[in-house]
Amino acid sequence: MAEGNRSSFEIVPRKDTSLFHMRVSLSPPDDTRSAGRVIKKTKTVVAGCECAAYCADMMSGIDVMLALKAWPDRVLGGAPKVSPHMVLLDKTGSPATSLGTNTHREGLHILHASWDDVKANCMVDNYFMVLCSVDIDWTPLASSVKEELPDLGHCLAMMSDKQELTDVSFDVSGESLNAHRLVLAARSPVFKAELYGPMVESKMTSITVQDMEASTFKSMLHYMYHGSLPDAGGKDVCSTMAQYQHLLVAADRYGVEELKKICEDKLSGNGITVDNVVSMLELAEDHVCPKLKARCLDFLADGDNLKMVAISDAYIHLIQSFPNLLVEVRSRIKKALEESTTMNPGAHKKTRLC
């Protein structure tokens, strides 16, 4: 940052009404900085609620804070539930999900990151960016709506948990999991053929499942009963992304297409990194996931990303296993360069087509 620049803090709106960027310009840390210096707050309206944003330039790092106020709805009879989330953007503009931590304290939602992490991974010239999303749940209060019957899938899941009237069990990695044949057959054509067709498993009360973790099978069963995935339980992003990969394989194996699409969408979102793009691309190629494959190729089309990935043994093995991918990577890089040249005729960045 040029010496003498004043710190600034501004909100940059997005087309999506539930998203906005915060652009933060700060002087770099030195011995003369005062801990706890707070940048003047700025306000905006996001998804129908007032959002006040603050940034504290601490000696230990950066604190970006949100205070959200949602107005009550007279028809629905109460204020909505507001769920914000903030993530730092790296120098390429991609979410840096491994940097910073989100916490909640006394009405404030806080993203804290160390100065070293921000400077090394996020600072561009004299500023860094934070992507903020706000989810608004306008579900009416329980007292204002007619009481409904519990969801049938939930009732069946409760029966499965209590081992009530279950008629099949699965031995997965040494753990026994009980279920109802009819539920599985309704959700999966593979289970339908296995449990009610001419296969030998149709006569068995206990079936051994090979090459799958019990946690993955449990998550698939949860989806079959509830139509949703279980809560991640506060696990870190990398762990969750690995679970989605395993779950996608299981969903493809048993023909649960809706679950497979959910996993592909999750992985295609903010989960692709230099460390996992090769395994993601191999997964997409093995299990026919066009959206995930396209996101991986777009990631590799960035010359800097490709330079870090192309020297790895995993990438070399992938190209040897799927020679067509090398052609597609080169094609995607060429397209990216052509688009860049069209938008910036004077800029010519050389990228080796590995």
How would you describe what is shown here?
The chain has 354 residues and is an alpha+beta fold. It has three domains: 8-137, no CATH class; 150-249, Potassium Channel Kv1.1, Chain A (2-Layer Sandwich), CATH 3.30.710; 272-354, no CATH class. It has helices spanning 115-121, 152-161, 181-187, 189-196, 214-226, 237-253, 257-269, 277-286, 290-300, 303-310, 313-321, 323-343; strands spanning 8-13, 19-25, 37-46, 49-57, 62-70, 81-88, 101-105, 108-113, 127-137, 168-172, 175-179, 206-209. Strands 3-4-5-8-7 form a five-stranded antiparallel sheet. Strand 10 (168-172) and strand 11 form a beta hairpin. 27% of the residues are buried.
What integer is the average pLDDT? 79
Give the number of DSSP strands: 12
Coarse shape: globular
- Listing every helix as H and every strand as E from the N terminus to the C terminus, the arrangement reads EEEEEEEEHEHEEHHEHHHHHHHH
Largest sheet, in brief, is: 5 strands, antiparallel
> Which spans of ≥5 residues are poorly predicted at pLDDT below 50?
1-5, 29-33, 141-146
- The count of helical stretches stands at 12
Q: How many structural domains are formed by the residues?
A: 3
- The span between the termini is 34 Å
Descriptive keywords:
354 residues; alpha+beta; Potassium Channel Kv1.1, Chain A; 3 domains; five-stranded antiparallel sheet; four-stranded antiparallel sheet; 12 helices; 12 strands; disordered N terminus
Q: Topology, please?
A:
Elements: E1 8-13, E2 19-25, E3 37-46, E4 49-57, E5 62-70, E6 81-88, E7 101-105, E8 108-113, H1 115-121, E9 127-137, H2 152-161, E10 168-172, E11 175-179, H3 181-187, H4 189-196, E12 206-209, H5 214-226, H6 237-253, H7 257-269, H8 277-286, H9 290-300, H10 303-310, H11 313-321, H12 323-343
Parallel strand pairs: 10-12
Antiparallel strand pairs: 1-2, 2-9, 3-4, 4-5, 5-8, 6-9, 7-8, 10-11
